[in-house]
C-alpha cells in the first residue's frame, strides 16, 4: 500500500480558469495549445511536460492539493486517468497563468512521474458563479461576498515516481 511522502497546497484564483503543474526546467509552451484544446472535453490534460486543469470559474479562489506518493495510490472507484509528467530537476511549479505560483521539491527527486487528478465542488462553484453574475446587474456589491467561497472548488493531484527521465541526448 502506497504512503504519502509529501503534500503541498495552494489556494488561488485560477487565471484563465487554469491551474498548471510543471517542472521548473520544462518549457511551459511545448504542446500547450493542443492540451488546452483538449480541456474543452476534459477537466485535465497534459503534454508530458506540463499538466493543465480546467477550473469552472475564475471569480474566487480554488484549492489545489498535491500529494506525492511512494508508489501508485489506490484508485478511486471508476479510476482516474493517469498522465505522464517529466520532472528533470524535481522542482515543480504549481500555479495559474498570470497568477500566483508556488514551488516545491519532489522527495524522490528528478524522474518521470505518473499523475492522477480528482476534484470536488465543481458543480457548486459553477452554481455560485452563475448566481453572482446574475446578481451583478442589480447588486454591484455581489463580488464582495466571493471570499467566503474560497476553496469550494478543489483539486487533488496525486503524483508518484515511475522511473528515471529518458535522456534522448544519450542516443549513440
- Structural class, by secondary structure, is mainly beta
Q: Which spans of ≥5 residues are poorly predicted at pLDDT below 50? A: none
Overall shape: elongated
* Beta-strand percentage range: 35-45%
| SS field, number of helical segments | 2
Beta strand count: 10
User: How much helix, percentage-wise, in residues?
Assistant: 10-25%
Biggest sheet architecture: 5 strands, mixed
Please list the strands of the largest sheet in the order they lie side by side: 1-5-10-9-6
Radius of gyration: 17 Å
Mean pLDDT reading:
92
Topology pattern, helix = H, strand = E? EEHEEEEEEEHE
| Intertermini distance | 39 Å
Topology:
Layout (H helix, E strand, L loop, with lengths): L3 E9 L5 E6 L8 H7 L5 E3 L3 E5 L7 E8 L13 E5 L3 E5 L5 E5 L5 E10 L1 H14 L18 E10 L9
Parallel strand pairs: 5-10
Antiparallel strand pairs: 1-5, 2-4, 2-7, 3-4, 6-9, 7-8, 9-10
Tell me what the structure shows:
The protein is mainly β and 172 residues long. 12% of the residues lie in helices and 38% in strands. The chain has two helices and ten strands, in the order ββαβββββββαβ. Strand 3 and strand 4 form a beta hairpin.
Short description:
It is built from two helices and ten strands. With 172 residues, the protein is mainly β.
Keywords:
single chain, 172 residues, mainly beta, 5-stranded antiparallel sheet, 2 helices, elongated
